[in-house]
Structure formats: C-alpha cells, structure tokens
Amino acid sequence: MPVFVMLTTLTDEGAKTLKSKPERIKEVDQEVMDRFGVKILAQYAVMGPYDFVNIIEAPDNDSVVKMAVELNSRGSIRTLTMPAIEIDRLISDLKDL
Predict the structure, then answer these.
(1) Which strand (E) or helix (H) includes residue 14?
(2) How confident is the model at residue 97 (pLDDT cuts 50, 70, 90)?
(3) Which end of the chain is more exposed for a tag (fewer CB within 10 A), N or C?
C-alpha cells in the first residue's frame, strides 16, 4: 500500500483539545482507519513549525485526500501530506529511465 508523510499543525482549538483530552490523538487514529482505511504506521510529536509527523499507509490518494479534508474541516489541525517512495523503489525506477 502507498505510504505518505503527513505533517500536522495544531490550531488554537486543537491545542486546547490536546491539553484537556490527550487521548483524543488515539481516537482520531482509530477513526481514520475505520472511516478511510488509513493506517498510522508511526506518529511523533515534534518541535518546530509542525506539531506532529505521521507516517501513514493508505489504499490510494483519494483516501488520503478524503481523510485530510475531513480532519482539516474540524478546525483543530492543518495538514500537509506528501507521498513517500521507498529508496529501493526509487533506485529501481531510475534505472528504468
């Protein structure tokens, strides 16, 4: 299945939710799996311009777009999602040029 890197930033509302109910993170992880078939492979809280780095696996681009629109529409986070290509796959693809 395709892998993506999703960077997320909390809004003021999202920061309030995180502070009052930190377990909400795990609830959202389960929701995106159940609703969109998106699996969280790894998730890290980070410092800097983004608050979280998520490595996700999804059936296709459409599933990721639907998930991102849903999560962004709630007003608690903003996302930036990028497809990720394994290095061995990249090397193989480049050799075929």
Answers:
(1) helix 12-20
(2) confident
(3) C
- Length of the chain equals 97
CATH fold of the domain at 3-95:
Alpha-Beta Plaits (3.30.70)
H/E stretch holding 8 reads: strand 3-10
List the one residue out of 80, 78, 36 whose CA is nearest residue 58.
36
Instruction: Name the residue among 83, 78, 88, 87 with its Cα closest to residue 5.
Output: 83
Give the DSSP letter string of 18-51: HHH-TTHHHHHHHHHHHHH--EEEEEEE-SSS-S
Kind of pairing between the strands at 39-45 and 3-10: unpaired
Looking at the DSSP assignment, which residues form a beta bridge with residue 40? Answer: 56
In tens, the pLDDT along 5-19 reads: 999 999 999 999 999
